[in-house]
Amino acid sequence: EVVTLAVLMSPLLRGLALQLHSALTGTYIPGSSSMAFINCLNEQIAKDIARAIMDKKLAAQVNILPKSSALYFWKGELEESTEILLIVKTRTSKIGELSNYVRSIHPFEIPEIISLPIDQGNPLYLKWIEENVPRD
């Protein structure tokens, strides 16, 4: 009991225990995949960035959502524009590399690149994400 408690209390050991359990049982570890959201100026830029992400194998899938209106503050002024939104499905461990890469190719001075961990979902789909994005 003491060993089990120690494993569960240490984040590193707990993470390793979850990975071992996942490998042995084929179950999904909550949060091991993520969705990243990236805003783009227009559809062509969105397609170019999506293809670049896929070519680098930084995602299993990228959805390109149609135009939406955006209101935001920029340099102290309220701005309004239209944007195209990318939704990127990837391993959580790839978010840092994805963010760095997108910042290097994105035309915006400060592109929106935010992510949320995927807690639950279709186990077969979550496994598919992991199978299609190489490990670090």
TrEMBL record:
One of its GO terms (biological process) is response to metal ion. Residues 1-17 form the signal peptide. This is CUTA protein. InterPro entries: Ion_tolerance_CutA, N-reg_PII-like_a/b, N-reg_PII/ATP_PRibTrfase_C. Pfam families: CutA1 (PF03091). Keywords: Signal. GO terms for molecular function: copper ion binding. PANTHER family: CUTA DIVALENT CATION TOLERANCE HOMOLOG-LIKE, DIVALENT CATION TOLERANCE CUTA-RELATED. Belongs to the CutA family. It comes from Tyrannus savana. The keyword Signal applies. The gene is Cuta. Homotrimer.
